[in-house]
Input
Amino acid sequence: MKVVVVLLLLSVLVCCGSALTPPGTFATPWMDTSLCAPADSLTLCQLKKSQCAPLDQLLTPAGGVVGAVTTCATASGVTLSATFFMGVGTAFMQGKPDALVDQASPDPATATTLRRCVLNTTGLLDPETLTLNRSAVAALVRGALTSPELGETVAAGAMACPEPLDFDVKIYKSCMKAVCMMEAANSPVVSMAQTFLPSLAPTAKTATKKSPITTAKALHPVPIIFP
Output
């Protein structure tokens, strides 16, 4: 069964990859290869991204970012800017709905208040310390990723990535995604794909395995809270 799933996934990636829009056109999540290794082929890059895709939904309110922002704005008496509403479509097409909160108000203090409210709706903000409940986030990571080994690695990274400044979760999520992408080469699906297609990425299997904390330090040289 795993062999069939891997082959189907590879065929979809190859097919879709041939239909990609040329560089310079409107950016999409598919075209983003910023977290992939330079030696990765586009197909391998997308395969790794598929393993880490569930992380995109972490720290996202159950009703979606737009609903949470509008609810929080109403509760706080904040009038949402026109930029917020005009940017909804673009944010989702680019795979960056979290950035919508930044466009909710031109006032930094108001934006911070809204980000705090939105993060609080996820149930992952400690009400006393006003910091992330990292143990809860790590548990969500383990449940979201299909590979137990990858889940444990990224869960450890979730404990090491930087605390969101002013409740802005974008850097925190990017840090976890970066850890996941570096470790995804060792996931069963990617390893099996390389078994069937050895030329997929000749250098991928020789990459040095790093700890999640080392990875987080290297990719995000900002103050990091370690367990």
